[in-house]
Specification:
The protein is an alpha/beta fold. It has 11 helices and 7 strands.
Protein backbone atom coordinates (compact mmCIF):
# COMPACT_ATOMS: atom_id res chain seq x y z
CA UNK A 1 0.00 0.00 0.00
CA UNK A 2 1.18 3.54 -0.60
CA UNK A 3 2.52 5.68 2.21
CA UNK A 4 -0.45 7.56 3.74
CA UNK A 5 1.49 10.81 3.39
CA UNK A 6 1.39 10.44 -0.40
CA UNK A 7 -1.59 11.62 -2.50
CA UNK A 8 -4.43 9.06 -2.51
CA UNK A 9 -4.47 6.58 -5.38
CA UNK A 10 -7.51 5.44 -7.31
CA UNK A 11 -7.72 2.26 -5.21
CA UNK A 12 -7.71 4.35 -2.02
CA UNK A 13 -10.57 6.39 -3.44
CA UNK A 14 -12.57 3.23 -4.18
CA UNK A 15 -12.05 1.95 -0.64
CA UNK A 16 -13.04 5.32 0.83
CA UNK A 17 -16.21 5.36 -1.28
CA UNK A 18 -17.03 1.76 -0.36
CA UNK A 19 -17.08 2.57 3.35
CA UNK A 20 -18.56 6.04 3.43
CA UNK A 21 -21.47 7.75 5.15
CA UNK A 22 -24.12 6.57 2.68
CA UNK A 23 -23.20 2.91 3.19
CA UNK A 24 -23.14 3.40 6.95
CA UNK A 25 -26.67 4.84 6.93
CA UNK A 26 -27.87 1.93 4.80
CA UNK A 27 -26.20 -0.61 7.09
CA UNK A 28 -27.86 1.01 10.10
CA UNK A 29 -31.26 0.62 8.44
CA UNK A 30 -30.80 -3.11 7.95
CA UNK A 31 -29.33 -3.54 11.43
CA UNK A 32 -26.02 -5.23 10.61
CA UNK A 33 -24.52 -4.03 13.90
CA UNK A 34 -21.43 -2.47 12.29
CA UNK A 35 -20.32 -5.69 10.60
CA UNK A 36 -19.51 -4.69 7.02
CA UNK A 37 -17.99 -7.93 5.77
CA UNK A 38 -19.35 -11.11 4.27
CA UNK A 39 -19.46 -12.75 7.69
CA UNK A 40 -21.11 -10.86 10.51
CA UNK A 41 -22.14 -12.00 13.98
CA UNK A 42 -22.09 -15.72 13.24
CA UNK A 43 -18.65 -15.78 11.64
CA UNK A 44 -16.99 -13.40 14.09
CA UNK A 45 -18.57 -15.14 17.06
CA UNK A 46 -17.35 -18.52 15.81
CA UNK A 47 -13.74 -17.38 15.54
CA UNK A 48 -13.86 -15.35 18.75
CA UNK A 49 -14.77 -18.46 20.73
CA UNK A 50 -11.65 -20.16 19.42
CA UNK A 51 -9.37 -17.22 20.17
CA UNK A 52 -9.71 -17.89 23.93
CA UNK A 53 -9.83 -14.19 24.80
CA UNK A 54 -9.81 -13.02 28.42
CA UNK A 55 -9.74 -9.63 30.15
CA UNK A 56 -5.93 -9.96 30.09
CA UNK A 57 -5.85 -10.18 26.27
CA UNK A 58 -4.83 -7.27 24.04
CA UNK A 59 -5.96 -7.66 20.43
CA UNK A 60 -4.46 -5.87 17.43
CA UNK A 61 -7.23 -5.47 14.84
CA UNK A 62 -5.73 -4.62 11.45
CA UNK A 63 -8.27 -3.11 9.05
CA UNK A 64 -10.72 -2.43 11.86
CA UNK A 65 -13.25 -0.46 9.81
CA UNK A 66 -15.82 1.33 11.94
CA UNK A 67 -14.97 -0.96 14.84
CA UNK A 68 -17.87 -3.40 14.93
CA UNK A 69 -15.76 -6.57 15.38
CA UNK A 70 -13.43 -4.80 17.85
CA UNK A 71 -16.37 -3.77 20.02
CA UNK A 72 -17.82 -7.27 19.77
CA UNK A 73 -14.56 -8.83 21.02
CA UNK A 74 -14.26 -6.35 23.90
CA UNK A 75 -17.92 -6.59 24.88
CA UNK A 76 -18.01 -10.40 24.92
CA UNK A 77 -14.63 -11.09 26.56
CA UNK A 78 -13.57 -7.92 28.36
CA UNK A 79 -10.33 -7.82 26.36
CA UNK A 80 -8.56 -4.69 25.13
CA UNK A 81 -8.49 -3.99 21.38
CA UNK A 82 -6.38 -1.61 19.32
CA UNK A 83 -7.70 -1.10 15.80
CA UNK A 84 -5.96 0.40 12.79
CA UNK A 85 -7.76 1.53 9.64
CA UNK A 86 -6.74 3.51 6.58
CA UNK A 87 -10.00 5.43 6.20
CA UNK A 88 -10.43 8.73 8.04
CA UNK A 89 -14.20 8.29 7.93
CA UNK A 90 -13.97 4.80 9.44
CA UNK A 91 -11.59 6.05 12.13
CA UNK A 92 -13.84 8.90 13.22
CA UNK A 93 -16.93 6.69 13.14
CA UNK A 94 -15.18 3.97 15.15
CA UNK A 95 -14.18 6.46 17.85
CA UNK A 96 -17.68 7.94 18.10
CA UNK A 97 -19.49 4.59 18.17
CA UNK A 98 -17.08 3.10 20.67
CA UNK A 99 -17.57 6.04 23.00
CA UNK A 100 -21.35 5.82 22.57
CA UNK A 101 -21.19 2.11 23.43
CA UNK A 102 -19.25 2.85 26.62
CA UNK A 103 -16.31 0.75 25.44
CA UNK A 104 -13.66 3.43 24.92
CA UNK A 105 -11.87 2.27 28.09
CA UNK A 106 -11.20 -1.04 26.31
CA UNK A 107 -11.11 -0.20 22.60
CA UNK A 108 -8.91 2.38 20.89
CA UNK A 109 -8.13 3.17 17.26
CA UNK A 110 -5.33 4.54 15.13
CA UNK A 111 -5.80 5.96 11.64
CA UNK A 112 -3.27 5.07 8.97
CA UNK A 113 -1.78 2.37 6.79
CA UNK A 114 -1.49 -0.81 8.84
CA UNK A 115 1.85 -1.55 7.17
CA UNK A 116 3.24 1.87 8.09
CA UNK A 117 1.86 2.71 11.55
CA UNK A 118 4.52 2.24 14.24
CA UNK A 119 3.78 -0.78 16.43
CA UNK A 120 5.78 -1.98 19.42
CA UNK A 121 7.25 -5.45 19.06
CA UNK A 122 5.74 -8.17 21.22
CA UNK A 123 2.95 -5.98 22.59
CA UNK A 124 -0.18 -7.96 21.69
CA UNK A 125 -1.57 -11.32 22.71
CA UNK A 126 -3.72 -11.60 19.57
CA UNK A 127 -3.85 -10.19 16.06
CA UNK A 128 -7.22 -10.24 14.32
CA UNK A 129 -8.57 -9.52 10.87
CA UNK A 130 -12.16 -9.61 9.67
CA UNK A 131 -12.13 -9.76 5.88
CA UNK A 132 -9.69 -6.87 5.72
CA UNK A 133 -6.39 -8.60 5.00
CA UNK A 134 -7.45 -9.25 1.40
CA UNK A 135 -6.34 -5.64 0.86
CA UNK A 136 -2.72 -6.48 1.72
CA UNK A 137 -0.87 -6.65 -1.57
CA UNK A 138 2.15 -8.28 0.10
CA UNK A 139 0.68 -10.75 2.56
CA UNK A 140 4.07 -12.24 3.36
CA UNK A 141 5.25 -8.87 4.66
CA UNK A 142 1.95 -8.35 6.50
CA UNK A 143 2.12 -11.70 8.29
CA UNK A 144 5.76 -11.12 9.22
CA UNK A 145 4.83 -7.75 10.70
CA UNK A 146 1.96 -9.32 12.62
CA UNK A 147 4.28 -11.94 14.05
CA UNK A 148 6.66 -9.23 15.31
CA UNK A 149 3.78 -7.42 17.00
CA UNK A 150 2.69 -10.55 18.88
CA UNK A 151 4.06 -11.77 22.16
CA UNK A 152 5.73 -15.19 22.13
CA UNK A 153 2.92 -17.72 22.02
CA UNK A 154 0.47 -15.10 20.76
CA UNK A 155 -2.39 -15.93 18.40
CA UNK A 156 -3.14 -14.70 14.90
CA UNK A 157 -6.76 -15.12 13.79
CA UNK A 158 -8.54 -13.97 10.66
CA UNK A 159 -11.66 -14.48 8.59
CA UNK A 160 -11.49 -14.25 4.81
CA UNK A 161 -12.88 -15.48 1.52
CA UNK A 162 -10.75 -18.03 -0.32
CA UNK A 163 -10.54 -19.38 -3.86
CA UNK A 164 -8.51 -22.24 -5.31
CA UNK A 165 -8.49 -20.57 -8.74
CA UNK A 166 -8.44 -16.79 -9.26
CA UNK A 167 -11.85 -15.18 -9.66
CA UNK A 168 -12.76 -11.81 -11.10
CA UNK A 169 -15.38 -10.10 -8.98
CA UNK A 170 -17.77 -7.70 -10.66
CA UNK A 171 -18.04 -5.95 -7.31
CA UNK A 172 -14.28 -5.34 -7.07
CA UNK A 173 -15.05 -1.87 -8.38
CA UNK A 174 -17.08 -1.36 -5.20
CA UNK A 175 -14.65 -3.03 -2.79
CA UNK A 176 -11.33 -1.96 -4.19
CA UNK A 177 -8.47 -4.31 -5.21
CA UNK A 178 -9.15 -7.38 -3.07
CA UNK A 179 -6.72 -10.29 -3.31
CA UNK A 180 -7.98 -13.68 -2.16
CA UNK A 181 -5.76 -16.75 -1.77
CA UNK A 182 -6.33 -20.48 -1.69
CA UNK A 183 -6.56 -22.26 1.65
CA UNK A 184 -3.17 -23.84 0.97
CA UNK A 185 -1.64 -20.45 0.17
CA UNK A 186 -2.98 -18.83 3.36
CA UNK A 187 -1.50 -21.67 5.41
CA UNK A 188 1.82 -21.53 3.55
CA UNK A 189 2.13 -17.77 4.08
CA UNK A 190 1.53 -18.20 7.80
CA UNK A 191 4.07 -21.01 7.96
CA UNK A 192 6.66 -18.99 6.07
CA UNK A 193 6.18 -16.13 8.54
CA UNK A 194 7.10 -18.51 11.35
CA UNK A 195 3.66 -19.33 12.73
CA UNK A 196 2.94 -22.79 14.08
CA UNK A 197 -0.14 -24.82 15.12
CA UNK A 198 -1.95 -23.55 12.03
CA UNK A 199 -5.64 -24.42 11.98
CA UNK A 200 -8.27 -23.58 9.40
CA UNK A 201 -12.05 -23.73 9.57
CA UNK A 202 -14.63 -23.80 6.81
CA UNK A 203 -16.93 -20.91 7.68
CA UNK A 204 -18.79 -20.86 4.35
CA UNK A 205 -22.07 -21.94 5.92
CA UNK A 206 -21.80 -19.23 8.58
CA UNK A 207 -20.95 -16.57 6.00
CA UNK A 208 -23.84 -17.71 3.82
CA UNK A 209 -26.15 -17.48 6.79
CA UNK A 210 -24.98 -13.93 7.54
CA UNK A 211 -25.26 -12.80 3.91
CA UNK A 212 -28.71 -14.33 3.50
CA UNK A 213 -30.00 -12.53 6.58
CA UNK A 214 -28.48 -9.25 5.37
CA UNK A 215 -30.01 -9.67 1.92
CA UNK A 216 -33.44 -10.39 3.39
CA UNK A 217 -33.31 -7.25 5.53
CA UNK A 218 -31.96 -5.22 2.61
CA UNK A 219 -34.81 -6.25 0.30
CA UNK A 220 -37.44 -6.01 3.03
CA UNK A 221 -36.35 -2.44 3.81
CA UNK A 222 -35.68 -1.36 0.23
CA UNK A 223 -37.43 2.01 0.42
CA UNK A 224 -35.80 2.95 3.74
CA UNK A 225 -32.34 1.90 2.53
CA UNK A 226 -32.68 3.96 -0.65
CA UNK A 227 -33.89 6.93 1.38
CA UNK A 228 -30.93 6.60 3.76
CA UNK A 229 -28.11 5.78 1.37
CA UNK A 230 -29.38 6.20 -2.18
CA UNK A 231 -30.29 3.78 -4.93
CA UNK A 232 -26.65 3.21 -5.94
CA UNK A 233 -25.82 1.99 -2.43
CA UNK A 234 -28.88 -0.26 -2.38
CA UNK A 235 -27.99 -1.84 -5.73
CA UNK A 236 -24.32 -2.08 -4.80
CA UNK A 237 -25.03 -4.01 -1.60
CA UNK A 238 -27.54 -6.20 -3.41
CA UNK A 239 -25.03 -7.07 -6.12
CA UNK A 240 -22.14 -7.50 -3.70
CA UNK A 241 -23.86 -10.01 -1.43
CA UNK A 242 -25.58 -11.81 -4.31
CA UNK A 243 -22.25 -12.27 -6.09
CA UNK A 244 -20.60 -13.88 -3.07
CA UNK A 245 -23.61 -16.16 -2.57
CA UNK A 246 -23.37 -17.21 -6.20
CA UNK A 247 -19.66 -17.98 -5.95
CA UNK A 248 -20.17 -19.91 -2.71
CA UNK A 249 -23.07 -21.84 -4.25
CA UNK A 250 -21.02 -22.77 -7.31
CA UNK A 251 -18.08 -23.84 -5.14
CA UNK A 252 -15.75 -21.35 -6.84
CA UNK A 253 -15.13 -19.59 -3.54
CA UNK A 254 -15.30 -20.57 0.10
CA UNK A 255 -15.09 -18.68 3.35
CA UNK A 256 -12.54 -19.59 5.99
CA UNK A 257 -11.18 -18.82 9.41
CA UNK A 258 -7.54 -19.31 10.40
CA UNK A 259 -5.81 -19.56 13.76
CA UNK A 260 -2.07 -19.89 14.29
CA UNK A 261 0.46 -19.45 17.05
CA UNK A 262 3.52 -17.22 17.19
CA UNK A 263 6.66 -19.08 18.38
Amino acid sequence: MPDPAEPPTASHDIIADAYGAEVLRAMDVIGREDFYGIAAGHGVGFLAERMALTPDSHVLDLGSGIGGPARFLARTSGCRVTGIDLSTFNHRTALARTQAAGLDHLVGFMQGDAMQVQLPDGAYTHAFGCEAWCYFEDKAAAYARIRRALRPGGTVAFLEAACEQPVVLRTAELLGPVRYESLHRYAALLRDAGFTDIRSFDTTALATRDITAALFRLISNRAAVILAGGEDVYLGLLELWAEFLAYFGEGRMTHCGFLARAP
